[in-house]
Every structure is written in structure tokens, then in C-alpha cells.
């Protein structure tokens, strides 16, 4: 089971939510050997972040490309192949059946793992109805999590509050990756449904995505190491 096989240090994914490569490289330099896993999302990906992802992977770091792909199956498959060639470890896709099926098939034979985004956490029932859905958020999350498992998707991104319920649905074969993490005493920023690192791990999360509590800390390296220590204690 993956819980035992991943070191606590490698369960912290630092979100490089920065506008430019120079700032990202400075942060990576500051964090040094303490952080092994980075998330690159829209902001940095469209500002030179993809060559940076390739460079990080070639230096032995793990990269989560949060690109939330969704398109016709063939286009998704070709995109996933390109991401696999960069050496990325995680890639997000929206949890639509055709998209998940294409992504899982296209990542075969590579080291890339596909993570499904079930329902964006900024959506409530009213947003779903406005978009033409009849299901509420909880039911759609559950239905999509089940489909993700059926299609062989490697993991799910969820709020830490959903982790325990999702774990019951998908069992222990899928990775649960949770943002919305705030160490006790740190600013909540715009996050509403937050958990401490220890509580998220206890709720069943495998990987924690943390941005501002590390990057805006006076000492980012110490902040990252404190979170890794909390993860280790929660797992012991
Ligand atoms: O700075 P903070 O720790 O809040 O950053 C969390 C990261 O996780 C950001 O990159 C954010 O976009 C991402 N994320 C999130 N909530 C989601 C999905 C992704 O906060 N539901």
C-alpha cells in the first residue's frame, strides 16, 4: 500500500504559485534539499513553467502539473503524452469519462500518474444547476470518484474535508491529494475549508499541497520542514 512506501518528506507538494520563472527558481533554491515535490499550475505553466518542470524532473525532483485537462479524447491523449515526456509525476484532468479514459491510456508505460478533479471546490449546488447538472455537489463528487476508480485513474484531488468520505469510496489504491492545508496558527488566506497537516493526513490524505504557508513564511525552508515533521508524526 502506498502509505508505507512514500517518505513523509515526499508527501509535501509545494505549490509554485508565482508569476515568473526567476521567482520560482529563487524559491526552489531557498527550499533546497528539503522539498522534493513541486506543483506548477496555470499561472507559472503559461509563463515558462513547462521547461522548468522538465528541468526539475531531470534534477530528480517530482513535479505535479496542475493543468486540469479536458478536451476530446484524442487531444487529451496527445497532451498527456507530451506531459509524460516532460518527466512529470502528477497531472490533473477533469473527471469526465472520455477525458479520464484517454488520459489513463495515454500515460501507460510512463511514470506519470493521472489525478482527477471531481467537482471544483469553488462550485456549490447552485453553480452545478446553472451549468446544467441535476446532481448536487456531494452526489456528483461521489459518482465521479467511482468512475475515476473504474477507469484506473491514479488519484483524486479533494478538499481535506472530503478525504475521509472519498477514502471509503475508492479504498486504498488511489492517491488522495489535498490542498486547503494550513498549519495551526497560520493565515487562512482565501481558503475556507482548511485542515492542519496532521488532521489531513489522519483523514486519509496521501499528499498535501501547500502554497502560501510555505512561500510567504519568513523562513520558507523551516516552514516546509515543520510541515514535513507534522506529516511524519501523523503517520507514525
Ligand atoms: O496557497 P495555498 O496553500 O492556499 O495554495 C493551494 C494550492 O492548491 C493553490 O495552487 C490552489 O490553486 C490549489 N487548489 C486549491 N483548492 C482546490 C484545488 C487546488 O487550493 N480545490
What is the topological layout?
Layout: H1 2-5, E1 12-15, H2 21-31, E2 37-40, H3 42-58, E3 62-69, H4 73-86, E4 90-94, H5 97-106, E5 113-117, H6 125-130, H7 137-150, E6 155-157, H8 160-170, E7 175-178, H9 197-202, E8 207-210, H10 212-215, H11 220-235
Helix pairs in contact: 4-5
This protein binds cytidine-5'-monophosphate.
3D structure, described in words:
The chain has 236 residues and is α/β, with parallel strands linked by helices. The protein has a single domain (3-235), classed as TIM Barrel, CATH 3.20.20.70. 48% of the residues lie in helices and 16% in strands. It contains 11 helices and 8 strands. An 8-stranded parallel barrel has the order 1-2-3-4-5-6-7-8, surrounded by 6 helices. Helix 4 runs parallel beside helix 5. The radius of gyration is 17 Å and the shape is globular. The model has no long low-confidence stretch (mean pLDDT 95). It binds cytidine-5'-monophosphate (C5P). Cytidine-5'-monophosphate (C5P) binds next to strand 8 and helix 10. Cytidine-5'-monophosphate binds at residues 15, 17, 41, 121, 157, 179-180, 189, 191, 209-213.
